[in-house]
Amino acid sequence: MTTPRIPALAALLVPFSIALAAAPPKESARPASPAATGADATLTEGRNLTQALYRGELAEIWKRLSPAARSLVEAPSRLELLRTSWQDRFGKETKILDEKTDSLAGTRRYLRIATFSKAKTPVEIPWNFDRNNEITTLGIRPQPVPGAAPHENEPPKVALRLPFDGEWTVWWGGRTVWTNFHAINADQRFAAISSS
Fold it and tell me: Are residues 19 and 75 in the same domain?
């Protein structure tokens, strides 16, 4: 599934809350060229980077990390420690449930949803890339669940209008976690972040 939008957060996922499997599933390939663009190329690149991470081929991943991501990881040796902790927590990937890509304004993202041998619920493997094709997000985390919204299917009782006019880009906005990561919080479920 490909949709035209952008991740609002261009930073590495909190590394302590995400995890990774050790053994590669059936796919095999090296990380794609950083110059790759387009939905198919992003899909291939996400798959290849995931496999490289599973195999422990971290040197190329480290080279591609954005400065902000590198500062969060701190050192190549720490990336290996994170990979090991992800493996210990989630085990091996057992089945790919879904893959998604999207892009906007020069940034791209890939999301893989899979089952893992030690996880009771689906797990996400995200990769985000900035305008320079540097990796801004990587890791593995339990699949986030949207916050409770008991009235989400009811029509609004009042007319709603944005407090501005003109053309704006919605960075985060929507009912799902894919279109609006804030949807995991009940009090932010239908929030939107925009810029002119």
Answer: yes
- What does residue 167 show for φ and ψ, rounded to 5 degrees? -95, 125
Let me know how many helices (H) and strands (E) the chain has, helices first.
4, 8
Q: Give SS3 for 179.
A: coil
Question: Residues 12-22: pLDDT tens digits?
Answer: 333 333 332 22
Q: Quote the CA–CA distance of 192 and 181 in Å, as a whole number.
A: 10
pLDDT tens digits, one per residue of 28-81:
333 344 444 578 999 999 999 999 999 999 999 999 999 999 999 999 999 999
Please say whether the beta carbons of 107 and 38 come within 8 A: no
Residues 52 and 127 in one domain: yes
Task: Indicate whether 118 and 191 sit together in one domain.
Answer: no
The model's pTM is: 0.70
Tokens 């998604």 sit on residue = 100
Alpha-carbon distance of 80 to 15, in angstroms, equals: 12
- On the 0-12 / 13-18 / 19+ scale of CB atoms within 10 A, 96 is middle
